[in-house]
Amino acid sequence: MFDPLLARIGRALDAARIRYMVIGGQAVMIYGEPRMTKDIDITLGVSIEAIDAVVKAAHDAGLEPLVDPRSFAAETMVLPCRDPGTTIRVDLVLSQSAYEDAALGRARVVPTAGHPVRFASPEDLVIHKVIAGRPRDLEDVRSILSKQPGLNRRDVEETLRGFEAELGEPFVERFRAATR
After folding, report:
1. What value does the CA radius of gyration of the chain take, rounded to a whole number of Å?
2. Which of 24, 37, 101, 177 has the highest CB neighbour number within 10 Å of its CB?
3. Cα 141 to chain center, whole Å?
4. Are 126 and 144 in contact, with CB atoms under 8 Å apart?
5. C-alpha span between 151 and 129 (Å, rounded)
6. Cβ pair 140, 148 in contact under 8 A
7. E runs forming strands in 26-102
């Protein structure tokens, strides 16, 4: 059910030349233990100035915005959509931070329903999950680490230290606690 939709979204974003990577539960299913998820989260490498191109790509993928795209995305940097055929929610997250730009460059292509779809690297997915910090996210971190023994923990900790300095939260300790 998710794979054809991911492929359709990937095709539309590729056609629009919008850099993207799938994050969240869909990416966890690639790198960790499969789990139930009801939505799709995708980071886009664009700012709010590109909202018209994002709305067009969403439309081309067959998605319906759930809100007024311009005002809601300007406030939240998220365009929540729904696929009418499956009722699956798709959150398109706009971001142009230096970290997200680098993460988009590290994204991995995974063949999905006949299309090369870009997923966050396992390291970047762990970073996203540690920063979110909810119990489900920390379970996902453990799952990814158990299935990805070659994951570069040093790079993860280094990136988390940078976020600690910026946001003042103990991300490295949260990561280490999730790995015990």
Report:
1. 16
2. 24
3. 14
4. yes
5. 14
6. no
7. 39-44, 64-65, 78-82, 89-94
Structure tokens at 90: 């798709």
pLDDT of the residue at 1: 79
Which domains can be identified in the chain, with CATH numbers? 1-120 (3.30.460.40), 121-180 (no CATH)
Q: Which pTM value belongs to this model?
A: 0.95
Q: How far is CA 11 from CA 136, 171, 173, in A?
A: 30, 35, 39
Q: pLDDT tens digits, residue range 76-126? A: 999 999 999 999 999 999 998 999 999 999 999 999 999 999 999 999 999
Condensed to tens digits (0 to 9), the pLDDT of residues 45-80 reads 999 999 999 999 999 999 999 999 999 999 999 999
